[in-house]
Design brief:
- The complex is a heterotrimer of chains A (58), B (202) and C (189).
- Chain A starts with a helix and ends in a 10-residue tail after the last helix.
- Chain A has a domain of 30 residues.
- Chain A is an all-alpha fold and 58 residues long.
- In chain B, strands 3-2-4-5-1-6-7-8 form an 8-stranded mixed sheet, sandwiched between helices.
- With 202 residues, chain B is an alpha/beta fold.
- Chain B has a single domain, classed as P-loop containing nucleotide triphosphate hydrolases (Rossmann fold), CATH 3.40.50.300.
- With 189 residues, chain C is an all-alpha fold.
- Chain C has one domain.
- The longest helix of chain C is centred in the N-terminal third of the chain and has 28 residues.
- Chain C is globular, with a radius of gyration of 17 Å.
- The N and C termini of chain C lie far apart (42 Å).
- Classes of the chains: A mainly alpha (58), B alpha/beta (202), C mainly alpha (189).
- Chain C: Keywords: Membrane, Transmembrane, Transmembrane helix.
- Chain C: This is UbiA prenyltransferase family protein.
- Chain B: This is 50S ribosome-binding GTPase.
Chain lengths: 58, 202, 189
């Protein structure tokens, strides 16, 4: 029984830590994605030779 | 092995910085791996002075691929090996030359995999005449990406060509959240700060 | 000894029958009743047969049947707490009333363990059906709160239930497994 309570306490801690960590990770990941987006689009533009919005070349 | 990528507009001094930094780290001969966009890899060995003559130039777009050299950086009592990667210059527009564009795309794809990004600016050509201070959109985008990434630093190059510190102060004002190190790739000024920064990230 | 044995068999069968009713109710609410049940010959039989099965389950073991079914009903409301229902009450209000009535009639432990075991089954079910529910637009705890969180929550519930009522935990999981298998074999093929 004692073991059960300890195990539950550990799991609850794990749950809270994981949930908080994931939320923070999602937010940070989103910000990082936002800042990387223009560079990724630029890479595609360099490769295709066309503007991604108006499709004009050079 | 940690990767240290050098990025910036064409002709800001990336290649000269790489070679002189290698010399600062006591390399006399450099083994450079040229990695082309199509996957072709060439290995070339040069003496530093020879490499500077062949690889560095006053005309832009000399570097058309990733140029990788390995160097030992002193750390504490020992040394740590790093890869210093020179890249092709990045421009805002769509360059007419396909090979050039591919080289630029290669630079951008290398950014995500790099542990340290040294973003070079030609401080001698900034803040005069043009309303955007001579800083391109790609520089701003790189700086914004750098903010979310650890190991990004701005190197204000060619300080040997400016009469006073005003352009450096202006550059720091434009990028207040970034670390700006004034350097001269030609004379070696600022290399110790760069070395310290790189060491901290290892 | 015989009484204890029969008791356990009654509990198991009651759990099984209640599980069938909960599964039917679940699919009815999601508008996903299998086509075999919706044929003209069978559709009119769903309600009367469900009530007969439920009453048989209640006769076998009233506590298990009512608390498990109430638990399923309350948890089914989880995503619709603010919804106005035909009774005029919101989902939350109905859930509280049902819980209160259960607590008046049945022991606290029985009500609690039934709620927890239904929540456990729901978590496992949602973990397994994550992709399907996402595509079809169904509410899903794993999609809402995250897969990692639901796995850890399921572990917490499992440990808690094993401490509080191992028998119920085993019976419900066994019946859940069997009912799902039978459902897929006989009704979905």
């Amino acid at each position: 029984m004692q073991f059960g309570y300890v195990l539950i306490a550990i799991l609850i801690n794990l749950l809270v830590g994981y949930a908080i960590g994931r939320q923070i990770g999602l937010q940070e990941g989103y910000q990082r994605g936002l800042s990387f987006g223009p560079l990724k689009m630029r890479e595609h533009t360099y490769l295709s030779g066309k503007c991604p919005i108006c499709s004009k070349e050079n | 092995m940690k990767k240290c990528l050098i990025v910036g507009k064409p002709n800001v001094g990336k290649t000269l910085f790489m070679l002189n930094f290698a010399q600062y780290l006591h390399l006399e001969t450099v083994n450079i791996q040229l990695i082309y966009y199509n996957g072709v890899i060439e290995n070339k060995s040069y003496k530093i002075t020879q490499a500077k003559e062949l690889l560095s130039s006053v005309s832009p777009f000399k570097t058309m691929c990733l140029q990788v050299l390995e160097a030992d950086i002193p750390m504490g009592k020992g040394k740590q090996r790093i890869q210093v990667i020179d890249s092709s210059g990045l421009t805002d527009g769509i360059h007419m030359n396909v090979e050039m564009r591919r080289a630029m795309a290669q630079t951008l794809s290398a950014i995500r995999e790099s542990d340290i990004i040294l973003h070079l600016f030609d401080i001698s050509s900034l803040f005069y005449d043009s309303p955007d201070h001579g800083i391109s959109k790609v520089d701003y985008q790189l700086a914004e990406f750098g903010q979310s990434k650890n190991g990004y630093v701005i190197l204000a190059n060619k300080i040997d060509l400016i009469p006073n510190k005003r352009p450096i102060v202006e550059l720091q004002k434009l990028f207040p959240d970034h670390y700006v190190i004034p350097i001269s790739a030609k004379t070696g000024l600022g290399f110790s700060e760069v070395s310290t920064f790189v060491r901290r990230r290892l | 000894m015989f009484v204890a044995d029969y008791n356990m068999i009654y509990q198991l069968v009651a759990t099984f029958l209640t599980g069938i009713i909960i599964k039917l109710l679940d699919d009815y609410m999601d508008e996903e009743l299998p086509s075999k049940l919706l044929s003209p010959e069978t559709r009119n039989g769903i309600l009367p047969y469900s009530l007969i099965i439920f009453s048989l389950a209640a006769a076998l073991n009233l506590t298990y049947t009512v608390t498990l079914f109430s638990g399923a009903y309350v948890l089914g409301m989880f995503f619709h707490m603010q919804q106005k229902l035909p009774t005029g009450l919101t989902g939350l209000q109905e859930s509280l009333i049902i819980l209160f009535i259960n607590l008046l009639i049945f022991p606290f432990a029985a009500v609690l363990t039934s709620l927890l075991v239904i929540l456990f089954i729901q978590s496992i079910d949602d973990l397994l059906d994550r992709q399907w529910d996402k595509r079809m637009g169904h509410h899903n705890l794993a999609n809402q709160f995250g897969m990692g969180e639901m796995i850890i929550l399921s572990a917490i519930l499992a440990v808690l239930l094993m401490m509080l009522d191992l028998k119920k935990f085993v019976f419900v999981n066994l019946c859940f497994f069997v009912i799902n298998k039978m459902y897929k074999r006989f009704l979905l093929s």
